[in-house]
UniProtKB/TrEMBL annotation, chain A:
SMART domains: AHS2. GO terms for molecular function: ATP binding; hydrolase activity. It comes from Anaerobacillus arseniciselenatis. Keywords: ATP-binding, Hydrolase, Nucleotide-binding. Residues 27-309 form the Carboxyltransferase domain. This is KipI antagonist.
Automatic annotation (TrEMBL), chain B:
The keyword Translocase does not apply. Keywords: ATP-binding, Hydrolase, Nucleotide-binding. SMART domains: AHS1 (SM00796). SUPFAM superfamilies: Cyclophilin-like, PH0987 N-terminal domain-like. The keyword Kinase does not apply. It comes from the Bacteria. This is Carboxyltransferase domain-containing protein.
Length: 326, 242
């Protein structure tokens, strides 16, 4: 069943339908895409009673204005972009009852870059290769492969519980991510670390790098002290993944994100670990960040811990006590 | 026997390197390795992408660990010796060269002091191996173009290159799988559809396939295009030993 749920009055800077991505086709050159902040996306879904893989709206910096077409339950997660309903502030990371005729709008970005609008039943659209995720460069997924625009009517799937049961859920404060912690981003070194001089590697792990304005869903260019290569900065085109940091001949790193191509031709100094990606994509241009080495074992421990919490949350949202702090 | 090298690409992928330079042997091993993964992927493996000298295996760290997977992949590789090298496809790609479809054929000819006919003959005589697919869905990275027709990219890239365009960039040749901006010298166009998300296998090619171009006239181009539209076109290929 499909219900018309949102009427888009203003598009915002860049609003797209996203889910957990188009997995399994990278060998054919098909980009994964999906939510940039996979953590906020999944939590949003859990708060409104969806499976974590359901589609949400990813909002970038300046949010859209949306008229609610039917009574529903929504949650805003990720960046705090001053969301309001009929002019009243909406607190993020909780599920709220949105009534027919109300208007969801956004104001000044407070912290973070990307917010997620999760709606009970999930955003509905055609799937391409098993995913609803929008990949703008190949016009794939979402609504005709494009961003949301003024006049669009979005529909949603069926809710998994009553409005009453789904609304008023609050995420426990200790689980809410802190995007402005200033902590270093943890990186697993390689596989092309041998292409750098000792000095180059030391530079990368000791200096600060600023997020430039050249940032989009595909990747983020950083600027700072030049990272020195031994000789070549180019490699035979080879696989990359989310968080991979390429260093071209300029010595200025590029971090690859959700819409990265499936392969790249620049030396890969390392890859940001899975659990640090959400905080990375929430950094504003101009922010200075730093990197720290971590082992693959430690990174996987952190990931397992995060996923265990996610699983507990999922169980909590399915119990009758779901109104209490999750 | 090749000595494989394993290295992490982040916390959810492992890169298996088969060597440092492109060779037929490396490519054959990569192809066999991917074949084995298809039938006997170790626990936790989600997908993999072959490249010129490596296979990168993506996995779910909730189901396996880096070291566990590496040891499983090592075991898998030991079985590779016994695995028969399968024959590979050489796909015939019909191309209408020159004219409106190949506006840069004239550049490629003059740059290499050849006639346009000679460029067509050289380009369509070689067999090209597809090492990997990307940068857009289904785009084949092909090796083996004769150097005598290599031509640098256009100084000013076009804002849109029509889908199916066959181009040359330096010593590479490729086929645009989507209409995208691009700076390759466009010498012709194929009616074949390289990428269609509605097909069971969205990409026409797989890494490891060979491609041979076959010159066709405009009329044939239209005929093939209309057959493809009616889903009545049969892809021509032969199985070859490489």
């Amino acid at each position: 069943m499909k219900t018309a749920i949102f009427h888009v009055k203003k598009s915002g800077l860049l609003t797209t339908i996203q889910d957990v991505g188009r997995v399994g086709y990278q060998q054919y050159g098909i980009v994964v895409s999906g939510a940039m902040d996979n953590f906020a996306h999944r939590i949003g879904n859990l708060l409104v009673g969806n499976d974590p893989t359901a589609a949400t709206l990813e909002v970038t910096m300046m949010g859209p204005e949306i008229r609610v077409l039917d009574d529903t339950v929504i949650a805003i997660t990720g960046a705090d972009l001053s969301a309001t309903i009929d002019g009243r502030a909406v607190r993020p990371w909780r599920s709220i009852y949105a009534k027919k005729g109300q208007t969801l709008a956004f104001g000044q970005p407070k912290h973070g870059v990307r917010a997620y609008i999760a709606v009970a039943g999930g955003i509905n659209c055609n799937e391409v290769l098993g995913s609803k995720a929008t990949y703008l460069k190949a016009n794939m997924g979402g609504i005709d492969g494009r961003e949301i625009r003024k006049g669009d009517i979005l529909s949603c799937g069926e809710m998994n519980a009553s409005h009453k049961k789904l609304s008023g859920r609050v995420l426990s404060p200790e689980i809410i991510p802190n995007y402005t912690s200033g902590k270093p981003f943890r990186v697993i070194v390689g596989p092309d670390h041998h292409a750098f001089t000792e000095k180059g590697l030391t530079t990368f792990f000791n200096e600060w790098y600023a997020i430039t304005r050249e940032v989009d869903r595909m990747g983020c260019r950083l600027s700072g002290t030049v990272i020195e290569h031994r000789e070549e900065a180019d490699i035979l085109s080879d696989a990359i993944t989310v968080g991979t940091i390429q260093v071209p001949a300029s010595g200025q790193p590029i971090v690859l994100l959700a819409d990265r191509q499936t392969s790249g031709g620049y030396t890969r100094i390392g890859t940001v670990i899975t659990t640090d990606i959400p905080r990375l994509v929430q950094q504003m241009p101009g922010t200075k960040i730093s990197f720290e080495k971590i082992s693959v074992e430690k990174a996987q421990q952190l990931y397992r811990r995060q996923e265990k919490n996610m699983k507990l949350l999922k169980i909590a949202t399915n119990t009758k006590l779901s109104k209490s702090l999750l | 026997m090749l000595e494989l090298k394993y290295s992490p690409l982040g916390d959810a992928a492992v890169r298996v390197s088969f060597g440092d330079s492109i060779s037929t042997e490396v490519n054959r091993q990569i192809r066999s390795f991917c074949e084995v993964l298809k039938t006997a992927a170790p626990k936790g493996v989600i997908e993999w992408t072959p490249s010129y000298t490596a296979v990168t295996v993506f996995y779910e760290p909730l189901e396996t660990t880096y070291h566990h997977l590496v040891s499983n992949l090592q075991n898998l590789f030991r079985k590779l010796e016994a695995f028969p090298t399968s024959k590979t496809r050489c796909v015939t790609v019909p191309v209408c060269y020159g004219g409106k479809f190949g506006p840069d054929l004239i550049n490629v000819a003059s740059h290499n002091n050849l006639t346009q006919e000679e460029v067509i003959e050289i380009h369509s005589k070689a067999k090209y191996m597809i090492h990997m697919l990307g940068f857009t869905p289904g785009f084949p990275y092909m090796g083996g173009m004769p150097k005598v027709i290599s031509t640098p990219r256009l100084a000013v890239p076009r804002s849109s290159v029509p889908v199916g365009s066959v181009g040359i960039a330096g010593e590479q040749t490729g086929i645009y799988s989507l209409s995208t901006p691009g700076g390759w010298q466009i010498i012709g166009r194929t009616p074949l559809v390289l990428y269609d998300s509605n097909r069971t296998t969205p990409s026409l090619f797989e890494a490891g396939d060979y491609v041979q171009f076959c010159p066709i006239e405009k009329k044939e181009y239209e005929e093939i295009a209309s057959l493809i539209e009616k889903q009545a076109y049969r892809l021509e290929y032969e199985l070859i030993e490489d």
